[in-house]
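ok so heres the complex, two chains, lmk if somethin looks off
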Amino acid sequence: MTVEPRHIEIEVLRYRPGTDAEPVWQSFRVPFLDDTSVLEGLQAIKDDQDGSLSFRWSCRMAICGSCGMMIDGVPRLACHTFLREFFPGKVRVAPLDHLPIERDLVVSAEDFVRKLEGITPWLVPREARTLAQGEHLQTPRQLEQFRQYAGCINCMLCYAACPQYGLDPEFIGPGLMALIHRYNEDSRDGARAERMELINAEQGVWSCTAVGYCSVVCPKHVDPANAVNQNKVNGALDWVKQRVGLKGASK
Amino acid sequence: MLPLETFKADVAIVGAGGAGLRAAIAAAELDPSLTVALVSKVYPMRSHTVAAEGGSAGVVQAHDSLQQHFDDTVTGGDWLCEQDVVDYFVAQCTPEMIQLEHWGCPWSRKEDGHVNVRAFGGMKIERTWFAADKTGFHILHTLFQTSLKYPSIRRFDEHFAVDLVVDEGRCRGVVALDIASGRFVLIEAGAVVIATGGAGRVFRENTNGGIVTGDGMSLAYRHGVPLRDMEFMQYHPTCMPGTGLLFTEACRGEGGLLTNKDGYRYLQDYGLGPPDPWPRKKAMELGPRDRLSQAFWHEDRKGRTVQTPHGSAVNLDLRHLGAKKLRERLPLICELAEEFLGIDPANSPIPVRPAVHYTMGGILVDGRTASPLPGLYAAGECSSVGIHGANRLGSNSLAELSVFGRVAGEEAARFARTARRDDNAALATQAGDAIALATAMVRRTDGTERLAALRREMAQSMEDGCGIFRTGPEMQATCDKLAELRERYARVRLDDVSTAWNTEWLNAIELGYQLEVAQAIAHSALEREESRGAHQRLDGFTQRDDVRFLKHTLAHRDGANAPKIGYGDVTITRSPPGTRAYGAAGEHAEAALGAAK
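and the predicted structre for the whole thing:
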């Protein structure tokens, strides 16, 4: 069972520091089958036509989060997007929006990682437990409270999608808001108050203008927009509770 | 050459997947005053641990025992395991899984809130902890995010290790390239841990990410540390034709069936039956990976497979599990089948074939992760600590990186605390040599060989000669091919002569690592004149030969020549080599053993 490949044009936005004054489009033609991904198309370019084309990739199965890029203007994972979708037209591939280009399709992840380090992205146990005491109990229903938000692969597509992050890079951004929510909603965690300060700060949820495009582009259905929205409600409730001195306020 | 930047650490760890992160946390917890340098060619959450799906072993059920985990592991490894190390390992698995739980790992739960466990191949009692079918992803993110708590861990993200520095017989640090800037840094350390994962990308069809190129194995090997048992490459039986992407063993653990083109459960023809009653542990679809991959090979020869555009396949049938259970237990599998194959596993079987999945051999280390080179430790897939033998039991690799990642971090920290740390100009000189060598590759203008061509020829040759079944002439042809490729590698010419984010350059250095690791695999295989676990021969050596080969293979690097192959003893404590049987034959063997006791 052999299938003859067809050919498709891939236009890539190139930027080589020291060589290109500004990003330039370059066109390539590559063979493809029905199940050839955009990533495999880029690999074919690098292997057989121009070894200088740079991009990140690894797992090929949409779990490592390396190969996010703008594909025909939409933030997508290259390993998870298939060339057949664009044929007989061409497909244009560019680095993720809103993030500084380091080279070709490689953008800087520094801002994301620096912010990640600052949101207490670890479990702060409600109660100290020794290994001999075994695991915390957590019912499937309690797990379901945060499971979806624990699915973020840090691919940064939602940062490229977020108009607010594009305007104000100080905004924590959708993916990390979802991660904050993931720990806050975990029945085992006791650091909600600390993280709510971040959520309610100027660069927290209130920066979000509720466009919702982050959730549209998320390849893992984490739905960061929903995490942000729930935290607007939580943040507002906290504010009210503090005003009237109710117990259970986070601060 | 740019002036060399130097960073002084106590412990340097190369690789920030599960094992490297676990080691970093262990070192930081043991002694917060130590500086831990964590060097990785990718951001930690991109490491290939992320792609592990099915789960991680740890005895929890009342009717299970450490003895049964030991037996499944040692039998599964066809008695080539270090039994004292396996004893330590099985005892530490559950505490490590609980530790991950305390750090937030979202393990799947039972209704009462306790952690749930599932069945895996070759396993007598269910003991696989799982987080749906994204267990590696959750373990990796849990470890990475937890590692951010420790101020003594200094990360070198997207730094590519080009060499180790060794002085007076002791490993003293790592030379790394900052990928974004093209600048090198010498990380001096009291002890070094290698945790760089496997080498599956030396084969054509594999489940591995592009970064799985045997870097750390090759670095240790170049500094005189033998690679042990490299001929044992694990073929996983259920992978996507063409891409090799993995459909987890949990598919079968949850009740999935394997059928041929006629809908027949063909495993019953290969010593794994009878098919009913079903499900039954250690039988049929719940047999071990080597046996299932070998059964596919035979079935394919008989012409009873289905044909796909990317080669022959059998059916992984999950339809009877129903959409609800599939979504809950195997969401990633559903997504892979739908997105990549256009198949809803609730309605159609998934075509699967074996692909290279796991490197069971690796850097020789003792039961405390120490290599023969003082100051050098290794943990995880890159190492050979001795728990996998000739065939790894599914679920033991995530447990391994947790258990031995911790050991490596602690041992390296202890070693670093007492290691002499004089300033030494020899280290900078060595680093300068390593940098000159790496840089020469970009500057070469007289090369004629294209990188991708060499890589493809290597991967095809490994598949041809060192696949599921092997013969002497085919292995010899692969050995010859690899010698030729190493020679041609010296004439590689790169398109890219820049220094910032030159991934072609990194790929070229990786290919150098891969060719040497591939040689260790092929020559170790050629010299083993028997069949055991994942090493199966068709040329007169079809049986296990405990007289000659109840031995570990040790591949020693010999410069530009082929490796020198030697052997080491296997530690047998209480399980003498016996018949390795599954299905009804296995049940009879166990009953007989029980009666004898």
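quick notes: The first strand of chain A starts at residue 6 and ends at 14. thats all i got rn
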